[in-house]
Request: fold
Amino acid sequence: MEKLRQTLKVRKERAILVAAILRKESIGLHTHSDGDDLIELTALAESAGAVVVDRFQQKIRTINPTTYIGKGKADQLAGRVRRFKADVVIFDNDLSPAQIRELEEIIAVKVLDRSELILDIFATRAKTKQAKLQVELAQLEYTYPRLARMWSHLDSVAGAGGATAAGAVGGIGTRGPGEQQLEIDRRLVSKRIIELKHELANIDKRKIREINGRKGLFKICIVGYTNGGKSTLLNALTNAGVLVEDRLFATLDTRTRKWTLARGARVLLSDTVGFVKSLPHQLVASFKATLEEAINADLLLHIVDVSNPDALKQIESVNNVLAEIGCGESQTLKVFNKVDIVRKIGDLEMLQTLFPDAVCISAKTGFGLEQLSKAVLAKYKGDELLLQVSSSQSNGKVQSFLRAYGQVLKEQYCDGSVLIDARLGRNQLAGLKKLRPETIEIVQS
Ligand SMILES: Nc1nc2c(ncn2[C@@H]2O[C@H](COP(=O)(O)OP(=O)(O)OP(=O)(O)O)[C@@H](O)[C@H]2O)c(=O)[nH]1
Ligand SMILES: [Mg+2]
Reply:
């Protein structure tokens, strides 16, 4: 198993990056400028520890079923691999096992696709036991269908993690293990997958118990594209001391801290793993326990790095992942971060037109945090109700509650009771009811 994971590592290897972009002539829509795919892939490859030596962008009309890019282009790529002494070629696209096999034969070095690269980054970053198990499961599930390739690969590619162009691949024809060995390996992998699922299910249960223990508290989870500034925001609001790095996927687990919005309004704030475009489905599935915080949140703060020219596409990617984990309908507040380094004001204005309720902040300088706190407080309270509450004068808790969480407008005392006119957020109504006042009348909602 260890051998299998080693194969996918790209640490310190010389990498050539390839993005094959399907021409969408019929639609005539340009959703991003040329080169964007490689900017993100470069950041991902560097995050994994690879040294990017060359980049190759190819517009294609159709996907070649055997080699993804055209055969001629694959030959050109082989030439560049020799010229730059590359050890690995990383595609921005997701390739089929057969396509990878074919490409490796032509290019003569290891070929990885985008999902394998992301899985490798997660493997490098995983620190907690839970994260390690989650990544191992995702890697095994993703590579399981590729097992035939992996094993032939191990035999033919010289030393995973340190292969050089010279003599790297002996070709698929020199496949090492026979079919029987392959079958044994498959069985080992599926056994390990079952074990991992079992272990993770236990962690999952513990996590759910932990979250249930926080019932009654208002839970907020910061979500967003990786490197958007989620951990920086958690630190700025709660002094959490979470690691912040200008690197993709700095955070792989979830931290939860108490955050005081205003008098009487204490909430729980969590920071979690970041998302990225086309996050491998297996990874999202196995990170379910980590994402449990987002799934159970009363409010999601969707943080957007508005200094990134791809901000809008990143919002879409995050929405897709949220829908995948079942948070598509959750109450969300958009937070536009990094306004201190926005270069194109026009882009920010366009985003503000699309999302007029978004709050602009800089988690780094502290700009806008006060306004964010107010906006969150409004969500915490819910829409404001005008109430008339009657309570026994001996039950002082009702009055204190209304003073702390709402706004008392009038108090009238008669016959041992007090009649209070007050404003209160809809979400606080349950708390008020628990204190058992004599009557609650909603005068206006
Ligand atoms: N200029 C500027 N930089 C920021 C701001 N917020 C965060 N950053 C920087 O952006 C980088 C990423 O910040 P993180 O807080 O680690 O981002 P994250 O969303 O937690 O990222 P992952 O955990 O990797 O998904 C760091 O270098 C931060 O210093 C901001 O408001 N302005
Ligand atoms: Mg983080």
Q: What stands out?
A: The chain is about 40% helix and 20% strand.
